[in-house]
Structure formats: C-alpha cells, structure tokens
Write a structure and sequence with these properties.
- With 147 residues, the chain is of the alpha/beta class.
- The chain has 4 helices and 4 strands.
- It has a 4-stranded parallel β-sheet with strand order 2-1-3-4, sandwiched between helices.
- Strand 3, helix 3 and strand 4 form a beta-alpha-beta unit.
- The chain starts with 12 loop residues before the first strand and ends in a 15-residue tail after the last helix.
Length: 147
C-alpha cells in the first residue's frame, strides 16, 4: 500500500520562487507561496528571488539557483505566486511546466483555493441537519405511523 497521501499532499521538498520589482511584492509573493506549500504539507527547502522581471528567465540568478537545486535533487517542485513571475503568458507557463516535468519535477502556481460549494449546497445541508435533529419543517414524512 503506498504511503503517499492523495491529491499531491505529502512531505515533498519544494522551492519558493518569486520575481518582483519591490521588496513588498517579493515578501507578499513569498508569504502566499509558503502558505500554499504548507497547506499541502510540502517542505520549503529554499526561497529564491529575482528583482527584475524584464530580464529573461534564463539570465536570472535566482532562477538558475532553483534549476540547479532541481537538477541536484535538493527539490522536487517549484512553487510560484503567479505565472507572471516566470512567464509572459499561459502558453509559456505550460511549456515551462513540461520542461520541469521532463527534469523530474513539477511547477505549481499558488492560486487561491476556490470554495468547494455547489449551488444550493447550503440549503441542502440545512435540511439534512434539521432532519438529523428530528425537526422537519414540512411536517411528518409518514403521517401517524404507529411504532
């Protein structure tokens, strides 16, 4: 039986990478990516940053350190706060993800979790809770059933 938790959870060493022009944006990106990694029980093995998004990604010193850590096996994944930290558009981000996957790693964007609620879920839960408590707002389901 595998002892790896489902849905990408587990003790996986990852790198947190950000590229922003100001220290405030950099620290915000680091906070969000650390939170994302912690929520999945990933171990943050290192934090690398660059301060000039206009420089091509291949010429960034922080990115070179991240890819070196990936190649050496120090990390297995890279977490970024937004795709814009490493690419210009979604196509480049997907291509970069494929390249990293070919090296044995993964690339994750720290997106906000959407609430896992469906339309009408609140009403259905309320009815179930009321039924479990023995209170039915519509009257007895089976009228006058002798037990």
């Amino acid at each position: 039986m595998p002892n790896t938790p489902p849905r990408g959870l587990g003790h996986v060493p990852v790198a947190v990478y950000s590229c922003a022009t100001t220290p405030t944006l950099t620290s915000d990106a680091e906070r969000r990516t650390r939170h994302y990694a912690d929520a999945r029980h990933w171990l943050v093995a290192g934090v690398w940053t660059d301060d000039d998004p206009s420089v091509p990604i291949t010429d960034r010193s922080g990115w070179a350190a991240v890819t070196g850590a990936l190649s050496s096996g120090l990390i297995r994944g890279i977490v970024v706060a937004a795709a814009s930290h490493v690419s210009l558009d979604a196509v480049q981000f997907a291509a970069l993800g494929v390249l990293i996957r070919d090296r044995g790693g993964f690339l994750a964007e720290a997106t906000a979790e959407s609430p896992r609620r469906t339309p009408g879920q609140y009403e259905r839960r309320r009815v179930l809770f009321e039924a479990a408590a023995g209170w039915i707002p519509y009257g007895p389901v089976v009228p006058a059933t002798p037990w």
